[in-house]
Design a protein that fits this description.
69 residues; alpha+beta; 3-stranded antiparallel sheet
């Protein structure tokens, strides 16, 4: 989620999030699905992901350390 927050309020292409994390986009599918299922994110169009709450990207940047591998 923090990596997605680094990209800003969104929506963002799932591939952009994967690129930031230096991971294959297919490996993030389960995490993406879990975030959508929990109501923290939604998919406004195919391949896109966005936070459900306005300004949530700023909140994530404040409370979570950036842990890119």
């Amino acid at each position: 989620m923090r990596a997605m927050a680094e990209l800003g309020p969104g929506p963002h292409r799932s591939g952009d999030v994967a690129d930031l994390l230096q991971r294959d986009v297919r490996s993030l599918g389960p995490c993406r699905s879990a975030l959508i299922r929990k109501g923290m994110a939604y998919s406004p169009s195919y391949g896109d992901i966005a936070f459900t709450v306005p300004l949530f990207d700023g909140f994530m940047k404040r409370i979570m350390p950036l842990n890119l591998k």
